Amino acid sequence: MQTDEGAGAVAVRARDLRKTYGDRAVVDGVSFEIERGETFALLGPNGAGKSTTVEILEGYRRRSGGDVEVLGMDPATGGLDLKARLGIVLQSTAQSGMATVREQLRQFAGFYPHPRDVDEVIAAVGLQTQAKTRISRLSGGQQRRVDVALGIIGRPELLFLDEPTTGFDPHARREFWDLIRGLQAEGTTIVLTTHYLDEAAQLADRVGVIAAGRMRAIGPVAGFGGDEARMPIVKWHEQGMPRQERTADPFGFATALAARLGGAPDELEIVRPSLEDIYLALVAEAEASVDSIGDAVAIGGEER
Fold first, then answer.
1. What pLDDT does residue 225 have?
2. How many angstroms separate the CA atoms of 44 and 282, rounded?
3. Per the domain annotation, does 28 fall within a domain?
4. Is residue 12 part of a domain?
């Protein structure tokens, strides 16, 4: 494994990462890199291997095979030296309900060599008026802000955010996005898992989609999925039936269609696939592939 000094611009590197339980592969040969200062969104349905991959990167789950580097260290052996450089916001935490917000943050700040100022962090997550309130008395959204505060108090080089805005109302989500943009401006590397595709589109530099244990696509948000996946779709009704066609020239196609039909088509619509559309298509393709393999195995078993 490389040392941190030789890690260059790469914060996270996974090569042929695998995690198996018996004969079941939860993570099956996943490879990717995350550059320092980058925000990388890892997307995938429940049970796809996304959370297992992140837990391996965090050092909380052992891998079955492959190589992993996080800040130039193997997370399986990095120990406290590595964890002091990480910030982790889990979907849920075991916070001390009897402690106030400020007391809890002061306690966690003591675990790190160069923590942020406690009051500065409280202000950053919008909890100034709740600073002296016991955590057990906070609303669910406010408790989630405490989770985020605990994740950034240690001034992490690499921050893991697991469904960070669960329980936030739309206004709170946008305030949180501003907080993350501030961390990005400071050069913090961020690994984000989220079910909100608009959140990934707003915050991430690149996106990776894991489904059925494999990385199905990876790339910048702006061109995610490649030219074919992002090709516009012309939708219309003809003889009472819905029709659609992918085309690189939607306006030319619509003009030719109108000429053929002798007038404007019914319910004509030109749709440019969003990140969510591409994500759902990738997941559906992966699930169909798994189902077809399962059918083939079942048929083979019957033949024997």
1. 67
2. 10
3. no
4. no
